[in-house]
């Protein structure tokens, strides 16, 4: 499943939320280091996580916990995020978790790892990162993919 990749501006008050920017490895593919990528529009977890979790709940089972590395998130990120009819607990691990990844736990499927594409990433680089993170044959971590994209701008050859 691949969601549209766009850089649309934030909606006006009362307008519909913009499309979720997410790309997932194909269903049934072998487990890899990353199960896909998510490109939030801001670094506000309280605002960004509900849409992500609402999209993943039907696919992966109810998401119950998310862990982040706080390196790239404001220090006041939420410990609990309400999502539709349940609450997701949010925890952080500084040394144990890749700073460019989210770890999601669900009742049904257990564990999922998503690359977090930095919100300020240009659309072409974000598209490359989302495609790379969704490729079940790649063996790179989130930080390795972000470094690869930063160190080799010519790796971004696909149009957006």
Describe what this molecule looks like in 3D.
- The chain is an alpha/beta fold and 160 residues long.
- The chain has one domain.
- The protein has 3 helices and 7 strands, in the order E-E-H-E-E-E-E-E-H-H.
- The chain has a 7-stranded mixed sheet.
- A hairpin with a 2-residue loop joins strand 4 and strand 5.
- The longest helix is centred in the N-terminal third of the chain and has 16 residues, at 45-60.
- It starts with 21 loop residues before the first strand and ends in a 9-residue tail after the last helix.
- The relative contact order is 0.20.
- The model is unreliable at 1-11 (pLDDT under 50).
Task: Tag the structure with descriptive keywords.
single chain; 160 residues; alpha/beta; 7-stranded mixed β-sheet; 7 strands; 23% helix; globular; disordered N terminus
């Amino acid at each position: 499943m691949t969601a549209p990749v766009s850089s649309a501006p934030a909606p006006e008050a009362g307008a519909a939320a913009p499309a979720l920017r997410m790309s997932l490895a194909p269903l049934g593919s072998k487990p890899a280091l990353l199960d896909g990528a998510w490109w939030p529009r801001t670094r506000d977890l309280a605002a960004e996580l509900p849409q992500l979790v609402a999209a993943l709940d039907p696919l992966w089972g109810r998401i119950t916990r998310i862990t982040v590395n706080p390196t790239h998130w404001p220090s006041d990120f939420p410990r609990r995020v309400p999502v539709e009819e349940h609450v997701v607990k949010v925890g952080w691990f500084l040394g144990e978790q890749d700073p460019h990844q989210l770890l999601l736990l669900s009742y049904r499927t257990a564990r999922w790892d998503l690359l977090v594409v930095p919100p300020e990433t240009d659309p072409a680089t974000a598209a490359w990162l989302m495609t790379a993170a969704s490729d079940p044959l790649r063996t790179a971590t989130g930080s390795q993919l972000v470094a690869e994209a930063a160190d080799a701008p010519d790796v971004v050859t696909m149009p957006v």
